[in-house]
From TrEMBL, chain A:
Compartments where located: Cell inner membrane
Topology in membrane: Multi-pass membrane protein
Transmembrane segments: 12-39, 73-92, 104-129, 149-168, 189-217, 229-254, 266-285
Keyword presence, Kinase: no
GO terms for MF: transmembrane transporter activity
Family: Belongs to the binding-protein-dependent transport system permease family. LivHM subfamily.
Record-level GO BP terms: amino acid transport
Keywords: Amino-acid transport, Cell membrane, Membrane, Transmembrane, Transmembrane helix, Transport
Protein's UniProt name: Amino acid/amide ABC transporter membrane protein 1, HAAT family
UniProtKB/TrEMBL annotation, chain B:
Domain ABC transporter: 19-247
PROSITE patterns, A to Z: ABC_TRANSPORTER_1, ABC_TRANSPORTER_2
Keywords, ordered alphabetically: Amino-acid transport, ATP-binding, Nucleotide-binding, Transport
GO biological process, one term: L-amino acid transport
Pfam family, one: ABC_tran
Family, as annotated: Belongs to the ABC transporter superfamily.
SUPFAM superfamilies recorded: P-loop containing nucleoside triphosphate hydrolases
GO molecular function: ATP binding; ATP hydrolysis activity; branched-chain amino acid transmembrane transporter activity
Entry protein name: Amino acid/amide ABC transporter ATP-binding protein 2, HAAT family
Cell wall biogenesis/degradation as UniProt keyword: no
UniProt cross-references to PANTHER family, sorted A to Z: HIGH-AFFINITY BRANCHED-CHAIN AMINO ACID TRANSPORT ATP-BINDING PROTEIN LIVF (PTHR43820)
Source organism (scientific name): Modicisalibacter ilicicola DSM 19980
Length: 295, 247
């Protein structure tokens, strides 16, 4: 059997693939955080809970409404995104004129409420969501076995990331968003309805998290705490990439997933901490993040 | 309704009012900056707000744009009271605002900056017209907005509100820190805009730049208008004005 540094090639590729898939989730989630932070300046601590809500909505939709996976992929982000819009309109807007740390506290509280409610209703042990039939099975690539669903997750997550990047960097609406991020008051003086832009941006960021949640449902156990454990890593990814950089969030997410995968092969004990080590190094060498603009 | 006072025989004095500010007070947090500002501008006029730093000229423009924390009094734009109008609706009354700090967006290139402000009225200049008026901007249209020189950034900040169809321009310190040759070019732009029938409120420190362009001058001090001088009265009152402005 082929080996590299004494590690079977299959194991290496398997872990790299796992890492890449984790990375795709990091990318999707940190992208949403970056978009929200850019315009609202709020660190959305409810992001993990909103991701979890996405997975749960897909699960409950399947169980009680017969909502199939493909529909869930479309409907759940809309529903959870609408919840985000409600949160922005009813809660975040009221505190936007005071220190943004209050926004952090508020979203943290919301995350606890969402999690706690679902723990009460469903307990902490996770349920599993069936892999959709069309994506069952896998390919034998010769050097490893690639489950079809995982390939789909990678493709879908990257497609949504690229779509978001395109919308923000290449369209007129995106130009409003970028300009609003820099100077919302001036944008409003130009006649742009900035409060509406803020609401839609938050809704979109939340919808991204929910989309990631639906994608995740068939591969990770769906439990009320699935978001909070992931969110800590995602925050580290955002710090490494630099707050507010779209492309940075995507690339850093993928790269950190890969690094985590590699570490699992060569030194498994450090796999859970390696991202934080990278974060510490980046903070020491480039405090604004790899892709962040110097303040 | 205040009855317009008869003025000197300038053409503009018979034109309808485009902007009337009455007893305007403005606040940032607890700071009370404007203490009852009164002035009016007629269609097609170019009016300056002169005064020392801190007199409240920038705040007056920002209050008109609803960019201060709190304001009271009356601001009538084109016959509409706007004191309770949300900030993003002010521009739609045909107001173009060019802030003191220019407000060029670093994450947008020159052309994106130009195309950014939404069109508020028909009759704005086309992109081609604008590039004809500001050839430098055409050459640098793909550069990030903040890579331009100070003068070019100022041109860009003015150019982008000309596209929107705004016919009331609020321009804040557009010559500040710019080389004389650029200041002269800006003066030529203002003459062209006036010829197009635009109404301009110019906050200016550079009195020599403003004097030959303006129809009337308002002098501000301590958050109030303390004097009004027409272009015709200017020669005899120049000494007095210099004393007030401390130039």
């Amino acid at each position: 059997m082929t080996t590299i540094f004494g590690i079977p090639l299959m194991v290496l590729f398997g872990q790299l693939l796992l890492g890449l898939i984790n990375g795709a989730f990091y990318a999707l989630l940190s992208l949403g955080l970056a978009v929200i932070f850019g315009l609202l300046k709020v660190i959305n601590f409810a992001h993990g809970a909103q991701y979890m809500l996405g997975a749960f909505a897909a699960l409950l939709g399947l169980e009680y409404l017969g909502l199939d996976y493909w529909l869930a992929l479309l409907v759940v982000p809309l529903v959870v995104g609408a919840l985000g819009i409600l949160i922005e309109r009813v809660l975040l807007r009221r505190i936007q004129h005071i220190d943004h740390l209050y926004g952090l506290l508020l979203t943290f509280g919301l995350a606890l409420i969402f999690e706690g409610t679902l723990v009460n209703l469903f307990g902490v042990s996770g349920s599993s969501y069936p892999v959709p039939e069309a994506l069952a099975g896998g390919f034998n690539l010769g050097f490893m076995f690639l489950p079809t669903y995982r390939a789909w997750v990678l493709v879908a997550a990257l497609a949504v990331c690229l779509f978001t990047w395109f919308m923000i960097e290449r369209t007129r609406l995106g130009a409003y968003l970028r300009a609003g991020t820099e100077n919302p008051r001036l944008m409003q003086a130009f006649g742009v309805n900035v409060p509406l832009l803020v609401t839609l941006t938050y809704g979109f960021g939340v919808a991204l998290a929910a989309f990631a949640g639906v994608l995740a449902a068939p591969i990770y156990p769906v439990s009320p705490t699935m978001g909070s454990s992931l969110l800590i890593v995602v925050f580290a990814v955002v710090v490494i990439g630099g707050m507010g950089s779209i492309l940075g969030a995507i690339l850093t997410g993928l790269a950190m997933g890969l690094i985590e995968g590699l570490t699992k092969v060569f030194y498994p004990e450090a796999a859970n901490t390696v991202i934080f080590l990278v974060m510490i190094m980046v903070l020491m060498l480039r405090p604004a993040g790899l892709f962040g603009k110097e303040a | 309704m205040t009855i317009a006072q008869p003025r000197d025989a300038g053409m503009a004095s018979t034109a309808p009012e485009q902007l009337r500010v009455t007893d305007l007070h403005a606040f940032y947090g607890e700071s009370h900056i404007l203490h009852g500002v009164d002035f009016e501008v007629r269609k097609g006029e170019l009016v300056t707000l002169l005064g020392r730093n801190g007199a409240g000229r920038t705040t007056t423009l920002r209050a008109i744009m609803n960019m201060v924390d709190r304001r009271s009094g009356s601001i009538v734009i084109d016959g509409r009271e706007t004191l309770n109008t949300p900030a993003h609706h002010i521009a739609r009354l045909g107001v173009g605002y060019c802030p003191e700090e220019r407000g060029i967006f670093a994450s947008l290139n020159v052309e994106e900056n130009l195309l950014l402000p939404p069109t508020v009225r028909s009759g704005g200049m086309s992109l081609d017209d604008i590039y004809a008026m500001f050839p430098n901007l055409y050459e640098r249209r793909h550069s990030p907005g903040t890579r331009l020189s100070g003068g070019e950034q100022q041109m860009l900040a003015m150019a982008r509100i000309l596209r929107t169809g705004a016919d009331l321009l609020l321009l804040d310190e557009i010559t500040e820190g710019l080389a004389p040759v650029i200041v002269q070019a800006l003066g030529e732009v203002l003459v062209k805009l006036k010829a197009r029938g635009m109404t301009v409120v110019l906050v200016e420190q550079n009195f020599r730049f403003a004097a030959p362009l303006a129809d009337r001058h308002y002098v501000m001090e301590h958050g109030r208008i303390i004097d009004e001088i027409s272009a015709a009265e200017l020669p005899e009152r120049r000494e007095h004005l210099h004393a007030v402005l401390g130039v």
